[in-house]
Amino acid sequence: MKRTAAKTALSLLMLCFAAAFMLPLLWMLSSSLKTPAQVFESPFRWITDSLRFSNYAEVWTNPDLPYWKMIVNSLLIALGSVAGQLLISSLAAYAFAKIPFAGKSFIFMLMLTTMMIPVQALIIPRFMLYHKLNLYDTLWCVIFPNFFNVTSIFLLRQFYMGLPNEMVEAALIDGAGHWRIWSEVMMPLTKNGLISAAILAFIGAWNEYLSPLIFLPSAENYTIALGIRWYLNDTAREYNLMMCAAASAIIPIVILYISAQKYFEDGIAASSVKG
């Protein structure tokens, strides 16, 4: 009886937490269907007398800031980041997990410590480097840094460590090199981990704001994040249109997560129990 009551109380508590996390999303959707004056009216109304679905049409067809162009830019950055990050992170993770070499543990710990370096501390060096390489104001200056991600390396390393070392030893005895072992033996066995890392990489690149803000000043290179901020300018505060842009921006993320939810959850759960 006590155990049932405890489970019920825990379920109600988690339901309250879920509702609290959903409130900002619901407020965003509600505000996207209002006029600017109605967004902050008091008392607050979740549903107004007339829902302005025309707000979405105004955002999607804005000639000053083509929404489709921002989607394309964000997709190019996200997909490019995912491809590069999976390749480099998977190779590095395999090396840390399965290839013995001097100083491996020290190098791995040193790599983990780089997570403590604030992103803001690297802005000026990156700015100078991109100018030297003529990459400033191109999508590459946002894509390239995403190739190297410590979290992705750590996640995939956990997967590789969960695979028997005997598989690598047997392949080496048969004459296979580490490249062939990685590509033909290990990669197919870490599908859940790769999908989990890909989802995290895509979401991180899709939502990135600071790098595009600093390195992509031209409107033609704007991403979704910069486009949302565009509606709060010096002459107007169009919060309703900003909420429309934000609500539209989460659609690819929701589709991606729903389509790969099983792999993502299995991948995160599996990586957390590997030693």
Description:
- With 275 residues, the protein is an all-alpha fold.
- It has one domain (64-271): MetI-like (MetI-like fold), CATH 1.10.3720.
- Helices cover 69% and strands 0% of the residues.
- It contains 16 helices and no strands.
- The protein has helices at 2-31, 36-39, 54-60, 67-98, 104-113, 123-132, 140-143, 150-161, 165-173, 178-189, 191-207, 210-215, 224-230, 239-249, 251-259, 261-271.
- The longest helix is centred in the N-terminal third of the chain and has 32 residues, at 67-98.
- The radius of gyration is 23 Å and the shape is globular.
**Proportion of strand residues:** under 5%
- Assign an overall shape: globular
Query: Which oligomerization state do the chains in this entry correspond to?
Result: single chain
Mean pLDDT: 82
The H-level CATH homologous superfamily, spelled out, is MetI-like
Number of helices: 16
Largest sheet: none
Which architecture would the CATH scheme give at its second level?
Orthogonal Bundle
SSE series: HHHHHHHHHHHHHHHH
Helix content: 55-70%
Strand count: 0
Q: Briefly note the structural class of the backbone.
A: mainly alpha
